[in-house]
Amino acid sequence: MGFLVRVNEASDRWAVATRLLWQPLSWEERDALRVAEGLLASGVADGDLYFQYRHAESWALEEGIVKTGSFSIDAGVGVRAIVGDQQALAYTDVLEPEAVVSAAQTVRAIARSGSGGVVAVAPRRFVSDQAYYAADDPLASLSSEAKVDLLHRLEAKARALDGRLDQVIAHLVAVWEAVIVVRLDGTIACDIRPLVRLSLTVIAHEAGRREVGSAGIGGRYLLTRFDEAVLDQLARQAVHQAEVNLAARPAPAGVMPVVLGPGWPGVLLHEAVGHGLEGDFNRKGVSAYSGRIGERVAAPGVTVVDHGAIAERRGSLTIDDEGTPTGETVLIEDGVLVGYLHDQINARLMGMRPTGNGRRESYAHLTLPRMTNTYLCPGPYDPQEIIASLDRGLYAVQFGGGQVDITSGKFVFEMSEAYWVEKGKIQYPVKGATLIGDGPEVMRQVTMVGNDWALDPGIGTCGKEGQSVPVGVGQPTLRIEQMTVGGTAAKE
Predict the structure, then answer these.
(1) Taking 70 as the threshold, does the pLDDT of residue 221 lie above it?
(2) Where are the beta strands (DSSP E) in 63-123?
(3) Model confidence over 410-420: pLDDT tens digits?
(4) Nearest to 273 by CA among 259, 286, 288, 291
(5) What gap in Å lies between CA 372 and CA 331, rounded to an integer?
């Protein structure tokens, strides 16, 4: 099934999607619309049929040996009905007409709210002429032998940089998805979605101490993008981080100014602010941002955007999982809250427009409003000027794990690479630093926004209500006037 196809044109994407998802059913448009009409006739106000084909492959190299190789193909249909603010879902992983009809009958029984009449659904096929990524199958872009060789070359490059490496782990993942969404209003949309990721973790030792360094890259393109320059870059980044951590001193603790580096540190914005701007939390009134449209929620100069239409980015989608085209949604503009992220149901219930942020992990999951690529926009300051402005404080370059409370916005994040700064100069790396605070307060504490805007390298995965989806984050260098830093040493 790992055939290499060229499907850059909208008509070709449609042909491939129907080949993978409707040909096994011997279905055409009218067959899907007939099921939709049955849902409407039973009193269901809204809903959809979500057809998904997913082909995935994963390779892991450790200690010079490929220890894991996995290969999977999954296909199925989720039938969703919406009545008021309630959703019902029935799904099947059997691509047979009887199974799909049975799923529709099941969801009708769950969601039935009254009797309806016979309703004709007028087809309105939508296949976007604008695709933000080529739809070629990335699994077929390299042979199995070439994939294994790529991992070996990456390991060799890392080991050549530092003889203190105890362990090197390289991981390669490729996914190819086809989706067709049939909405009850007759809209039929499709997308073909490639996704790849390459990651490297190294463990170095010195004088009885062992430290970890990591790096990764990914996006919606082919595996052939991982050329020698990319391998060199990943090896340097992972080994550098391990070397920095070997030399790190205990992190100071206390309230202090903090500078966040560009790119991946935007994960703090994603977790501590972005989730609070999703429509479901605001409709239910449980977000720190609920009912605050038009209010100042961040410092002047802070503009936050979610953008699902950036070419080849990990979080980008031509259409969301309800068939709505994605695009740019401004959430906070110059410090003022101007919008939320919406799927169809929350937009309708709040009297707002869908923003193309209805996402689901698979056909077996309900749609939720989710982020795509979420970032803080650039400002006027040179990043070196921002670092030089610190008299005594922390410069956080890379983030590790973290925890966030959506209701309050309170968070705790670990730093995987950070430095102590005095009198505007980086003094030494620190280890064991955590950042503690709440998202809305951090946004009010931003005093300098850099001009070095960057997105993360393409490694983010977001979890919500047990569902995981690929996302992107980003920001320029930021100065935050006061944050609580948890560390292992007292602030001098």
Answers:
(1) yes
(2) 65-83, 86-92
(3) 889 999 999 99
(4) 288
(5) 13
Mention the CATH class of domain 10-246. Answer: alpha beta
Length of the chain measured in residues: 492
CA 280 to CA 272: how far, in whole Å? 16
User: Could you write out the DSSP letters of every residue in 111-150?
Assistant: H--S-----PPPPEEE--S--SS----GGGGS-HHHHHHH
The position carrying tokens 């906070």 is 332
Q: Give the span between the Cα atoms of 303 and 353, in whole angstroms.
A: 20
Cβ distance 5 to 151 under 8 Å? no
Give the HSE-up count for residue 95: Cα atoms under 13 Å, Cβ half-sphere: 19
Question: Which residues, at least 6 apart from 484, have a Cβ–Cβ distance to it below 8 Å?
Answer: 254, 255, 435, 436, 437
For residue 240, name the pLDDT band (cuts at 50, 70, 90). very high
Neighbours of 351 (CB within 10 A): 6
Q: How far apart are CA 488 and CA 433, in angstroms?
A: 8
Q: What stretches of 270-409 adopt beta strand conformation (E)?
A: 304-307, 328-333, 336-337, 358-359, 368-369, 373-376, 392-404
Half-sphere exposure of 311 (CA within 13 A, CB side): 2
Residue 187's CB is within 10 A of a number of other CB atoms, namely: 20
> What number is the average pLDDT over the span 382-396?
97
pLDDT reported for residue 12: 85
pLDDT digits (tens, 9 = 90+) for 452-492: 999 999 999 999 999 999 999 999 999 999 999 998 764 44
Residue boundaries of the structural domains of the chain? 10-246, 250-490
114's CB contacts (< 8 A; 6+ apart) are 43
Please state, in angstroms and rounded to a whole number, the distance separating the CA atoms of residues 186 and 206: 64
245's tokens: 């951590």
pLDDT of residue 86: 85
* Angstrom distance (rounded) from CA 21 to CA 30: 15
